[in-house]
Amino acid sequence: TEKAFGDDGCLRQPKELSINKVGHALHDHDPVFKKFAFSENISSLFSSLGYKRPAVIQSMYIFKQPGIGGEVVPHQDNTFLYTEPLSCTGLWLALEDATITNGCLWAIPGSHKNGLKRRMIRDENGTHFDRPSPLYDQKEFVPLEMKSGDFVVIHGDLVHQSFENLSPVSRHALSLHVVDMEGCKWSKDNWIQRKTAPEPLYVS
Fold first, then answer.
1. What dotted CATH number matches 20-186?
2. Which of 1, 26, 198, 201 is 20 to 30 A from 57 via CA?
3. What Pfam families does this protein's entry cite (predicted)?
């Protein structure tokens, strides 16, 4: 994380308290995270949402370290994980209590009904957004405080964010993003491009 380093270029705290996040394919490479991602509970959730061939396309362990855990600006997950038609759903598991003081999620209720505002594109010019971010009214955001073990499902067009963690306690969380590989096309200009197709949670 940016604030982990002092002016001299050295870490200001131990390495284990300096990591921002680990990703983006924990579900592919680590058996513990794969067991969770491919669990019956996750599959049942996406079956209830009508997904035909859901696949975890991204997984992240987010540390949100005490005192230095960085801000995540307002965004929509479909901006980064675009399919045609849109199909991204985010899953956010609180591994520790998430509060206003340690950087919990905030979201604009109903914003998922207003459409996707911009995309991140990877092309010959590198990785960039196709248009500037809209200006959001901070008064519209509501906090999503969570207890350890709580689980939130995030629509791909929902505008959400989190602030810096200026508290003395961390806010660990696990995030998964899932898209439907049946009837939905993964964009060739998404920033994530796999050499092999992702393993589906199930096929219906």
1. 2.60.120.620
2. 1
3. PhyH (PF05721)
